[in-house]
Every structure is written in structure tokens, then in C-alpha cells.
Amino acid sequence: MKKLFLILSVALFSLGTVNAFAQEEEAAAPQEATTEVVAEEAAETPATTQEPAEMEGQTMHRVLMQKFLEGGWAWMLPVLLCLVIGLSVAIERILYLSLSTINTKKFMESVENELKSNGVAAAKELCRTTRGPIASIYFQALLRYEQGKDLDVIEKSVVSYGSVQTGQMESGLSWIGLFIALSPMLGFMGTVVGMIGAFDAIQAAGDISPTLVAGGIKVALLTTLMGLIAAVILQLFYNYIVSKIDSLVNDMEDASIVLMDTLTDQKK
User: Fold this and answer.
1) Residue 44 within any structural domain of the chain
2) Residue 18 has pLDDT above 80, yes or no
3) Among 124, 118, 159, which residue's Cα sits nearest to residue 139?
């Protein structure tokens, strides 16, 4: 439930930002209309020098949002949804993995000291009150050790529960991978539709004019651009999450070896 709430919160916040920017653009539209007459009177100033000046005065975030709105909601909205939902899942995974990270060396030393000083019950209580997959694996192993299970049974339970913890850490990665693949596909689809619209306009007019097809080509290129941007952003988050999981899995394996050695010494 907490995972779903976090994903929905990030998604609603991102969509709210886009909506606020769209309303701001609509409010600024009348002012732009009143200045068009002045701009037409100053025709001797080249248009190519005005547009870069306007772009330089805006932040990158504002420029991207403006281009997003120029691309049209029909194809930009699916790309935005892929980006927002993918980022929501990625942020939830990063928070989960960050909370699962502990000082492994210090934890193993504490468990070993509790086993030697206060017994299995105290060590098991320490594992129960510690967050993270390593503490969960230790708890399951000590629980079976307390029940008098053989070391082979304990080792198998450690391996099995380690696989369960790895699966929990990798939960949601398939969705991020889906949105990484889907974002550029939707962008390319918007490109194809925009080009078809441009050629339809040429066919209807019976003439090839740059101003006639510029709008369709611009929408086509913008959808591809936004799809690629969304895929690149999600890919960065995906690689970071995978590296974080690999680091935790290595810590789990090292900790499991140390635990089995400790329990073997306790058996003697």
C-alpha cells in the first residue's frame, strides 16, 4: 500500500507540474497576441536572431515543457505517462534499497557477539529489530538453528531465503524496462503519424511548400525527441538500481558465508 501511494504521489505531482505550465502558457497567450503587431512592424530584424534570444532567456526545464506542449497531447501524453510512472517506480525502488542498506560488517560482529554472550535468542532478536535483507536471512537461519536443524538444512534455507530477498529487491524492474522500451516506440509512432499528416497536407494542396509541411514535421521530430529523452532518463535510473541490487546481493552472499562459519563454530 505504501509503495502504491508513493508511486501515485510522484505521478500526480509530475502531471500537476505539466498542467500548471500549460495554464501559464494559456494565460500568456493574450499578451503574446498584442505584441504580434509590434513584431510585424519590426520586420527588418531577422527572425532567426529573435528565437535564440528567447531560448537563452529560459531555463532548460521551461524549454522542454514548451516543446512538450508544442508536440501535442495526442502523442506527448503517452510518453509523459511512461516517464512519470517509470520515475515513480524507480524512486520507490531507490528508497526501498536505501532503507535496506546497513553496515554489514558491524551487524555481523554484533550478531556474533550476541551468540557468544547471550545465546541464540538474543541474536535472533537483534536480527528481528534490524531492517534489510541480510538481517532477514540471519533471522531465518537462527530460527532453524534454534530448532535444532542440521547445518545442511540451515544452509539450504539461507540460499532459498536469499533468492526470495533478491526477488523482492528486483520487484518493479520489469516495469521500468518496459517504459524504457515503450517511450521511444511511442515517439517513433508519433513521428510516423506526423509525417503522414505532412504528406496528406501536400496531397490536399497539390503543392510542396515548407510552411505547409513544417507543422507536421515539427510534431514528428518533437515526439521522437521526447521519447528518447524519457528513455535516457529511465535508463540511468535503471542502471543505478541494478548496481545497487548487485551490491546488496554481494553483501548478502558474504554475510551468509560468515554466518555459516559462525554457526559451525557454535556447533563444536
Assistant:
1) no
2) no
3) 124
Judge whether residue 92 has pLDDT over 50.
Answer: yes
Asked if residue 193 is part of any domain, the answer here is yes
Contact indicator for 235, 180 with CB cutoff of 8 Å: yes
Q: Residue 48: what pLDDT?
A: 39
Can you give the residue range of the structural domain that contains 250?
Answer: 71-268
In degrees and rounded to multiples of 5, residue 43 shows phi and psi of -70, -20
| DSSP line for 65-112 | HHHHHHT-HHHHHHHHHHHHHHHHHHHHHHHHHHHH---HHHHHHHHH
Mean pLDDT of all residues in the chain? 77
Grid cell digits, residue 127:
536480527
Grid cell for residue 151: 547445518
Q: Is 20 within a domain?
A: no
Residues of the chain with pLDDT > 70, as a percent, come to 69
Q: How many domains does the chain have?
A: 1
| Half-sphere exposure in the Cβ direction for 62 (13 Å, CA) | 8
**Close Cβ partners of 224 (under 8 Å, ≥ 6 residues apart):** 184, 187, 188, 190, 191
Of 252 and 36, the structure prediction assigns the larger pLDDT to 252
Is 55 contained in some domain? no
pTM of the shown model: 0.72
- Burial (CB < 10 A; 0-12, 13-18, 19+), residue 57, is exposed
